[in-house]
Design goal:
Rhopdopsin 7-helix transmembrane proteins, mainly alpha, membrane, single chain, 0% strand, 328 residues
């Protein structure tokens, strides 16, 4: 998650843990809701991980990137969501300095991996459509595995330096709050690397993807006019192209809608302004919900995921050679 310059004295002086004013029933409902969202996030992404890992038909470059995204979303559901939502409900950080460090590092790691993975998915789709021969010859699952590993290692190295090596994180801690402090240069670098550059790349590439898809659909419709015997097959291809374009649009729009509110708040709301903490909290919740929504999108629009779920829930994945089953 993007760093924001924080003045420790401002936060520690202005922030204090308020007494809980909600009733016990509301308090329990909030915790049940938080647990339900976290559990849904964990289960949904775990099903994606099992599906892509188990069935050999799904070992494609695009699905390996989806697997990487699901792993980062799983980290959010297991570690980040429970700690952060508990902090919001209690209105006070009570888990101590060590857990604060763990929360922030995993949060930053999962966020940077997710954003860069979505950017890699955009690159993958663009190459697959714009240069299909190059893509089929050069972009193999092994190549994507190496790129994915590099993405995780880069994020690990980058976040460790940003948070710990230059002392930006460890010198900020006061009772009841868990925040990060960085200088202006580090904050600007992080904004560029984790938000502006990958999001700009995503928007540019998906714009080209939609143009290519539209061009393909136009060409297919042109064939329908001149070749009536193949009209049925062309209609299927036309429908497939449009469905792919709609799915890409949904994924990108949901991703940006969940991402933008937090970064806008980071830019316009000073962290020392305690009165506006609730605005930032709402933005962070939207940010986390992207990890919950992704598996739901797969379940609604990806036929292979629907078939995989059916095989998983009927326990057919435990059969011999179940990894060779047809799920496409």
């Amino acid at each position: 998650m993007n760093l924001t310059a924080v003045n420790q004295s401002d936060v520690c002086q202005e922030y204090s843990c308020p007494e809980r004013s909600v009733s016990l029933s509301v308090y329990v409902i909030l915790y049940v809701a938080a647990a339900a969202v976290s559990l849904l996030t964990v289960c949904g992404n775990l099903l994606v991980i099992i599906s892509v890992s188990h069935f050999k038909q799904l070992h494609t470059p695009a699905n390996i990137l989806i697997l990487s995204l699901a792993v980062s979303d799983l980290l959010v559901g297991i570690f980040v969501m429970p700690l952060y939502l508990s902090w919001l409900i209690e209105s006070c950080w009570t888990s101590g300095r060590v857990m604060c460090s763990i929360l922030k590092f995993l949060n930053f790691q999962a966020t940077s991996v997710s954003v860069h993975t979505v950017a890699l998915i955009a690159v993958d789709r663009f190459l697959a459509l714009s240069s299909p021969f190059f893509y089929s010859e050069k972009i193999s699952p092994t190549v994507i595995c190496i790129v994915t590993l590099f993405n995780w290692l880069f994020s690990l190295f980058y976040n460790f330096i940003i948070l710990f090596v230059n002392g930006n994180f460890t010198d900020v801690m006061c009772p009841g709050v868990c925040v990060s402090s960085v200088d202006g240069v580090s904050s600007l670098i992080d904004l560029l690397i984790v938000f502006l550059m990958p999001c700009t790349l995503i928007i540019i590439l998906y714009t080209h993807v939609f143009v290519i898809v539209k061009r393909h659909v136009t060409a297919i419709r042109g064939l329908q006019v001149h070749n009536s015997t193949g009209s049925s097959k062309n209609r299927v291809s036309d429908k497939s192209e449009r469905k792919a374009a709609i799915l890409l649009g949904i994924l990108v729009i949901v991703f940006l809608l969940c991402l933008l509110p937090y970064y806008i708040c980071s830019l316009v709301i000073p962290y020392s302004n305690v009165d506006l903490f609730y605005v930032r909290d709402v933005a962070v919740i939207f940010f986390f919900l992207n990890s919950t929504i992704n598996p739901i999108i797969y379940a609604l629009f990806y036929p292979w995921f629907q078939k995989s779920l059916k095989l998983i829930f009927t326990f057919k994945v435990f059969n011999k050679d179940s990894s060779l089953l047809n799920v496409l």
